[in-house]
Amino acid sequence: FVDLLTRVYALDAQTGKLLWKTKAGDHPRAKSTGSPAVYDGRIYVPMSAMETTTGAVNTYECCSFRGHLVALDANTGEKLWRTFVISEEPMPRGKNAQGVTLYGPAGGSIWNSPTIDPKRKRVYVGTGNGYTSPAAVGTDSVIAFDMDNGKIVWQHQEVKGDAFINNCGARGNPGDNCPETLGPDYDFGGSSLILHTLPNGKDILVAGTKGGLSIAFDLDKNGEVLWKTTLFERAPGAAGLIVFGGTSDGTTVYYPLNQAGAMVAAVNLADGSRKWTSSAITGERNGIAAATSGLPGVVFAGAQGGILRALSSIDGHVLWEYNTAVEFQTKNGIAARGGSMGQPGPTIVGGMVFAASGYVGGGTSTAGNVMLAFGLE
Q: Is 311 in contact with 298 (CB distance < 8 Å)?
């Protein structure tokens, strides 16, 4: 497992004894926000940073972090390779009004967990926005890495010129750290890429963007776009429409929509056509930032207002729903209350559905402290 400060740990699963510990990142603002992927004796660690939040502070030398993927030996923690999504090294690009040196290019954080393709020996990630203008190639992109050596095999940049830093205005002021034109922050966020084989045997990679697009890539043609579907009626804000990702059953991908009403949209994997959109949750002013989860016939979606829904994968009708934003009597006797649902979708195993309630992700989210277990009556 990896902690927020990019330290990777291996423990003996039976005793908890520390086997090894490695620091994967060396930038002072580096963070680990996406889960690592483990395959065939290697650990692939995605690297992100918090320069998007500190970059606007005029005493900060904005910005020098570039998103990258690190491969470690799972047995020893040895670093095998590291590849940056932006090839150019950051260089001084002038000074701000306070005389602080500014750097660039920067950005392209990898917020999501890598997707493994054993057949082609590749690892896929989606990248974040740029921090500096002009946003470099490698930002707002889907990137395929060679699993053995980390070389970039192909990449697709969906949005060009997307430089975004929190707490900046729409247009930067001369002398500050902000991009000349802000955003729109339509990157791939925390949404992991979905690898699927269609019924006809064709392998595709499906991505969802904060800008509200679902995109399918042809893996046998180095990422050629097969189809692209728009999932919004009006352009979303910087908070994003697809934030932490969807779930798929092999024929359909189900995306949570982070907008008023908290709907879920079902998209046909074969051609990108929309199959259905679920009904709105009455009174839900925000949406669903959390990832959806699924099992055959059912899609689970938890809204920021605290409503957890089970939807029919056939037509999206509500099978059941539960308000988690209430007080609970807990198994360990600690006072508890649910709140907003965010980030991961529910975990489904052994006939049970496990869901956390109380995620705080900004805006009007409500804090809480419960894990809930749902079972069949």
A: yes
Instruction: Compute the distance between CA of residue 153 and CA of residue 170 in angstroms, rounded to an integer.
Output: 35
| Residue 51 φ then ψ, to 5° | -65, -20
How confident is the model over 197-238, as pLDDT tens digits?
999 999 999 999 999 999 999 999 999 999 999 999 888 988
Q: How many CB atoms lie within 10 A of CB 13?
A: 8
**Sequence-ordered alpha helix ranges (H) in the chain:** 51-54
Does residue 134 contact residue 106 with C-beta atoms inside 8 Å? no
Separation between Cα atoms, residue 355 and residue 347, nearest integer Å: 7
Quickly list DSSP for 195-236. EEE-TTS-EEEEEE-TTSEEEEEEGGGTTEEEEEEE--SS--
What's at 242, amino acid-wise? Answer: I
Let me know: does 214 contact 229? Beta carbons within 8 Å.
yes
- Alpha-carbon gap, residue 179 to 52, rounded angstroms: 11
Q: What pTM, to 2 d.p., does this model score?
A: 0.95
